[in-house]
């Protein structure tokens, strides 16, 4: 999966995607690893390429995330920048990792496209609330 194919980045101009591409790295997490941890400072935003990560939080049902292109760690882009749940790998998982501060600077530099991305991210958050 190429991060440009992720729903929140669709139809964003290539020159902006080129700026975002400079922020991207890949990481592989082993079974049982925590990708994000509830309550910790949210510094990175992740996109699942392959694997399965279960999002869990005290008092809420667990949410399996296993579809390529799914967003994890959206809190890195939303105040107060604390992860709201813990993401634990149920299978080895390959993710795209993006620094939240640096991504926000790109979005602020291009406000119209930044607003489009943030609206799409709000849709992801809303769908997760409905699922839980």
Secondary structure topology:
Layout: H1 14-21, E1 24-29, E2 34-36, E3 44-57, E4 60-65, E5 71-72, E6 86-99, H2 100-109, H3 111-131
Antiparallel strand pairs: 1-6, 2-6, 3-4, 3-5, 3-6
Helix pairs in contact: 2-3
Characterization of this structure:
- Helix 2 packs across helix 3 (111-131).
- Strand 3 (44-57) and strand 4 form a beta hairpin.
- This protein has helices at 14-21, 100-109, 111-131; strands at residues 24-29, 34-36, 44-57, 60-65, 71-72, 86-99.
- Strands 1, 2, 3, 4, 5 and 6 form a six-stranded antiparallel β-sheet that branches.
- It has a single domain (3-127), classed as Sandwich (Jelly Rolls).
- The mean pLDDT is 94.
- The longest helix is centred in the last third of the chain and has 21 residues, at 111-131.
- With 132 residues, it is an alpha+beta fold.
- The protein is built from three helices and six strands; from the N terminus they run αββββββαα.
- 30% of the residues lie in helices and 34% in strands.
